[in-house]
Amino acid sequence: AQTVTQSQPEMSVQEAETVTLSCTYDTSESDYYLFWYKQPPSRQMILVIRQEAYKQQNATENRFSVNFQKAAKSFSLKISDSQLGDAAMYFCAYERDDKIIFGKGTRLHILP
Amino acid sequence: DSGVTQTPKHLITATGQRVTLRCSPRSGDLSVYWYQQSLDQGLQFLIQYYNGEERAKGNILERFSAQQFPDLHSELNLSSLELGDSALYFCASSVASMTALNTEAFFGQGTRLTVV
């Protein structure tokens, strides 16, 4: 069965600095999707970034980028120039055939 | 505002009872997904409907059921409630199935269920 592991329950970063959130997953499939979702205090879930497993190039969205290591089954999220609005819970997710598995989340604190 | 509406926002009920959570997807979205977020289990996928039909099933208990109506709104029914069912229940919608390229899921604000 597929699993998603986020080993950092909480992290803190100074404003304007860079932080990396870790995510590993386990699957025997070769074709799948990976996501990072952000859940701010409003409780809504916001898609941050998506990666297709068949693409070798790491996805990037403005200050957010991923380091996708398919062989190592690792999918970390890098947030550059951290801003106070980045404070939230971040969930890593694996999806294939419309079934989605989420990690338990990492709470990110931004220190002013 | 994601365009996905969930009601009610908060629900308190006793063990053994049955509740219905409602989700209205974004206009034009055919897929509806239900998730449960609890402290110990994290965020879990429960079930997906696409245009009225069940499309994918996750870790959904037999005491739980869902359906999607012709107007595409969805309801999640939770019965014989237990203390452990207390959680935040999210609904999300997307235009197509999430595996479609460039398809993003939009989440509602969730329903906080407290079983006492």
Write a brief structural summary.
By secondary structure, chain A is mainly beta.
Structure, described:
The complex is a heterodimer of chains A (112) and B (116). Chain A is an all-beta fold and 112 residues long. Chain A is 0% helix and 54% strand. In chain A, strands 2, 5, 6, 10, 11 and 12 form a 6-stranded mixed sheet that branches. The N and C termini of chain A lie far apart (41 Å). The radius of gyration of chain B is 13 Å and the shape is globular. The model of chain B has no long low-confidence stretch (mean pLDDT 89). In chain B, strands 2, 4, 5, 6, 9, 10 and 11 form a 7-stranded mixed sheet that branches.
How many whole angstroms does the radius of gyration of chain B measure? Answer: 13 Å
Strand content of chain A: over 45%
User: What is Rg of chain A?
Assistant: 13 Å
Distance N terminus to C terminus of chain B?
Answer: 31 Å
- The rough form of chain B would be described as globular
Low-confidence stretches of chain B: none
How many helices of chain B does DSSP assign? Answer: 0
Give the strand tally of chain A.
Answer: 12
Roughly what is the average pLDDT of chain A, rounded to an integer? 91
The H-and-E topology of chain B, N to C, reads as EEEEEEEEEEE
Helix content of chain A: under 10%
Element order of chain A: H for helix, E for strand: EEEEEEEEEEEE
Protein chain pair with the most extensive contact, residues per chain: A-B, 22 and 27 residues
Number of helices of chain A: 0
> Structural class, judged by helices and strands of chain B?
mainly beta
| Shape label of chain A | globular
How much is the average pLDDT of chain B?
Answer: 89
Which strand-content bin applies to the residues of chain B?
over 45%
Query: In whole angstroms, how far apart are the ends of chain A?
Result: 41 Å
Runs of chain A with pLDDT <50, length 5+? none
